[in-house]
Every structure is written in C-alpha cells, then in structure tokens.
Amino acid sequence: MNRHQGRRGPSRGGPSGSSAPQSRGSAAPLKPSTALPPFETFAEMPLRAEVLAALHAMGITKPTPIQRLAIPPVMSGRDVIAKAETGTGKTLAFGAPMMSKIDASRRSVLGLVLCPTRELAQQVAQVLEKLGQPIGAKVALSVGGEPMNPQIDALKAGAQVVGGTPGRVIDLYGQKFLSFPW
User: Residue 79 needs a FRET pair 20 to 30 A away by CA distance; which of 46, 92, 121, 147 works?
Assistant: First the structure.
C-alpha cells in the first residue's frame, strides 16, 4: 500500500497524486442562504470560550452577516462556501470556528487556509494567531518570497494551522515538511 492509500482508499490526486478526481455521484445542488440566524453577538454563538475571549480582546463583539451565516454550520461540521465583499469578516467567519475546533495538544497540521497573495496570507495568519493564542494553538505562515527555513521551523515546532500561498504550501508538501493527518 502506498502512502496515498489506506482507510480512505486510493489517492484523489493533489499536489503529488497523478490520478484524476474520483466521482462521488451527482452532487447535491447548493442551497444559498441569506436568512440571518438570530445571533446578535458572538457570545450567543457556539464558539469555544477562549476564542470568544480572544474576539472580545480584539474589540469584536457583534458578528457581521457573513459571520452569522457561516459560523453555526461550520461549527456543526457542515461544508460552507461563502461569498462576501472585502472587509466584511470572512477570516473570522471561518477562523473563529476553526480555532474553536483545534486540538492544540496535537503536533500536526489540522487547519489550512490558502490565500492568493502573500499579504493576505500574512493578514489571515495574524488574525488566526490572535484567535489561537488563548488555547495554545500555533499558526505557521508559509509564503513565497520569504526565507523557507523559518517556515520549516514553525512546522517542525508543531503548528496546528497553516496560512499560506498555494505555491509555497505545495513546495513544503512536496519536500515532506508539511503533511496532513488522515
């Protein structure tokens, strides 16, 4: 059995896989939702207490519409695709529930945020660091145009979350410095 096979079956492609994606049958149609849940504050949302405290320390108490729509289904384990204007809080919409679910005692990557630019990846990583600090979660920034050794050191130190650009993430994955648990 190669490293891409196991309990979950053969590889589905990816950075080092060469097989085409496998069909899982017909996909269910998307069900867009614009009806806002009744949450008026983050304190009413099903987020971890430490993450709520981090949000409060950042001066953030009232969720934006995208946060109200995304956080409850993400916390319940559902897949969410969201679209919102720049500056409306998408990082927190996905970052707060991700950090609420992170097990900081694990020394492996449990969350990955891919960003199209180095600057956006840096901004996202800074927010995730603030959210993860109270639970002891570590965030590694993996971007091109910066020295690779500090990024490798952050991964070796047991980062649970990686924020990065696709090229550098694929590079680190290909060199086996970055891996994802089953």
Answer: 121
The CA-based angle 158-151-142, given to 5 degrees, is 100
pTM: 0.79
Select from 125, 105, 104 the least CA-distant residue to 169: 125
Which residues contact residue 75 at a Cβ distance below 8 angstroms, ignoring those fewer than 6 apart?
45, 46, 47, 97, 100, 101
Length of the chain as a residue count: 182
Residue pair 143/121 in contact by the 8 Å Cβ criterion: yes
Distance separating alpha carbons of residues 12 and 5, to the nearest angstrom:
10
- Structure tokens belonging to residue 155: 């991964």
- State how far the Cα of 103 lies from the Cα of 97, in Å rounded to an integer: 12
